[in-house]
# Entry
Amino acid sequence: MDKSKHNNKNENFNNIVIHLKNLIRDIDTPFYLYNIDELIKSATHFIEAYKKNIINNPLGIYSAIFTNNNLFLHNEICNSNPSFGIAVNSPAELDAVINNLKLPPDKIRYVGGIQPLSILKYVSTNQVIPHIASIEQLSQYCDSIPESTKIGLRIDVLGDGLKGIKANELPLALEIIKKASCKIYSLHGYPGTNVLDEHRLLRFALELFLISKQIKPAVKEINLSGGFGYDYVYRKPAICLDTYFNGLNKILKNHDIPTNIKICFEPGRILFVNSGYFITKIVDVKKISNIHYNVFTDACFTQFPSPKLTNTFHQAFVVDKTGNLKKGMSYLSKICGASTLSTDQIIPGLCELNNPEPGDFVIVLDAGAYGRVGSYHFLGFPKPPEYAIKDDKVILIRDSVNDPLEIGLQRNLQKD
# Structure
């Protein structure tokens, strides 16, 4: 295999290995572990890259809660810089953020898709602006709200989206809003997930900016959403933020976008991904050939489903029973899950693991995005607990049962 692809996987790992010595001795596997310093470093880098390249337009960042719904982590991000808020897309997420983080409404953006009118009205009663994603939805909403209500529109910017008001529908949308004597506060679009090409993101931004110029008076906020991709093999962002923001700045200037419009983003993956680790214990090892092993763990793919569901490779390490990093012969290993399914594999493809043995631990890297948030109870395996390293101490930030988002969902179901 190409060893150069693995050069980055040792970075920022020593601190994790130190804390693993106590963790694997004291708690059961599997579990998630987050490095708060790395999380804040990613958040800070995003802000610094923007301010370095875009001087005039104010910045708003709403961390995407569906990427990682651990509220402790979002609270750390929001406390790190006043530019941060949170993007939610369901009543359960909205309830959890309001009740647990006590964020003011102007720090929350509701960016759900095409949803029932009752949900949109519920959002607005919390003084949070919903982003309307269809003409029919907009018509119903405008018929049910007071005059002068602030409205957000979700735009299908490139014409290839499943949701959003298309560019040729904008005149009708403006007519509906004018008739209701309401105001368009913000525009929102979604360029896709894990975009690996900055040119698509810049083209998307250009089209949304041009659409915004059709609206008078000018909107207060243009939300370019997220989509910033990550290279899981080389362990680095796929989009150079300096290059992207520099290109964005040229678009803003060339098309005379007012400098008082706030430019907003909803980064998820690039904020969380490299701060998180998934740790599972090796139960058995079967030698397939001199260089190939099947490594069986105590985790199930349902506890970390995104690699299997999206066919995304993750790099991994092995540490021994005492928490020391394993060395020696490297084997191409299939990391297998503990359920009855023959397709239960934690990581698709083969990982290079150093001398894996029963009783050792596999540490999957870049597990901070779409980890526990996507886990589910199929096959009876519980959602893994989550721990964080903060101020050089390890703390439990969510156990297998206590999940405020699930509590919020149950509460909303009971209301219905």
User: Anything to note?
Assistant: The CA atoms of residues 17 and 123 lie 43 Å apart. The first strand starts at residue 31 and ends at 35.
